[in-house]
Structures are given as C-alpha cells and as structure tokens.
Amino acid sequence: MSAKLLTRQLPRGLALLALIAGLLGCGATATQPTADAATSPKDSGPACYVSGESLAHLLRLEHRYLLADSDEQRMRQLMEARQSRDKALEALLLISPASSAEDSRLGAELLGSLPLYPDDKCIADRYLFLHLSQVRHDLARSDELKAREDEITELKRKIEALTDLEQQITRQRKDL
User: Fold this and answer.
1) Calpha distance 21→25 (Å, rounded)
2) Most buried residue, 26, 32, 80, 102, by CB count within 10 Å?
3) Contact, 94 vs 110, CB < 8 A?
4) CA distance 21 to 55
5) Which sign does the torsion angle of CA 167, 168, 173, 176 carry?
6) What is the reported pLDDT for 27?
7) pLDDT reported for residue 46
8) What superkingdom does the record give (predicted)?
9) Spatial separation of the C-alpha atoms in residues 9 and 43, rounded to whole Å
10) 145 vs 43, 58, 63, 150, CA distance in Å?
11) Per residue in 19-67, pLDDT tens?
12) Residue 153 pLDDT > 90
C-alpha cells in the first residue's frame, strides 16, 4: 500500500473508530442502572435453590454416604435425608455412585424437579445441575448398552435357530 493511500484511509478509520467508541459509550450510559433499579430485587442476585454455604454440608454428607461400611448405613442416611425434607440432599444421595440404577433414576427425577439455578453465582445449584447432567448421561448410556445387549442376545438366538435349521436340512438330505 502506498503512503498516500494509507494517510487518506487513516483519518476515515480514526473517525469510524471515534464514532463506534461514542456509540458504545452512549450505550453504556444508557444501560447504567438507576438508583431505584439497583435496589430492586431483580438485581439482588439469583434465587439459588441451595445456598453456596450449604454446598460444603451437602458434600460432607455425600462423602459420609459414599464411605458407609454397609447398605444399612446408607439406607439410614437416606432415611435421615428424607425425614429432614432436604430434597437436594436426598437426590444427591440417590444419584451417588454407591446407589443402584433404580435409585439413580429416582434421584435424577427428583433433582430434575428442583428449581435449580445453574449460574456462576449459585455454585451449589450449578454443582447439582452438572451432577444431574452426568447421571442422565450415564443412565442414557446404560440404557443404550442394555438395548445393544438385548439385540446381541436376540441375534444369537436367531443364529442358533438358523444353525439348527441347517442341521435338520443336512440330515434330511442325507436320509434321501
């Protein structure tokens, strides 16, 4: 590019840049909250289902559940969670790796019914939401594997039936 062309385009570029900066500046001032808007409940933060402070407590109880020595201890801890009516804890225990597939399904349904707000500001809700997503993925994969195993079993049965049929035909041919 020649120096003349560059000097002609430079002022246009600067003018365009100044115009964009001015528009962005106007947009920023137009969207600044007023004093009334800053005190409204909408800006006070999201309504997290589980507070961030409760996450440590939930994780301790989940850890205790996972390290339980027996199924009876796990059942007792699950009953305590149900009696406390802490749906997040109950769901978390039900979807833990120590739970059965049926319990995981129940826990996923329960956790899916909770009004979680999986935002960065609601870390406990986000943790539960991500945990739920992983469990749903695992359950879907398990269902897919079971369907494939059923299909393999059916194909084996058909192969055996065809093998039997082939043997019968071979015997009939020998008899003729």
Assistant:
1) 6
2) 80
3) yes
4) 43
5) positive
6) 42
7) 63
8) Bacteria
9) 45
10) 46, 32, 29, 9
11) 444 444 444 433 333 333 333 334 445 688 887 778 888 888 888 888 8
12) yes
> Which residue, 4, 23, 5, 26, is CA-closest to 15?
23
Task: With 0.70 as the threshold, say if the pTM is over it.
Answer: no
pLDDT digits (tens, 9 = 90+) for 103-135: 888 888 888 888 888 877 888 888 888 888 888
Encoded tokens for 156: 């084996």
CB of 143 closer than 8 Å to CB of 108: no
% of the chain at pLDDT higher than 90: 14
Tokens 């120096």 sit on residue: 3
How many Å apart are CA 68 and CA 98, to the nearest integer? Answer: 9
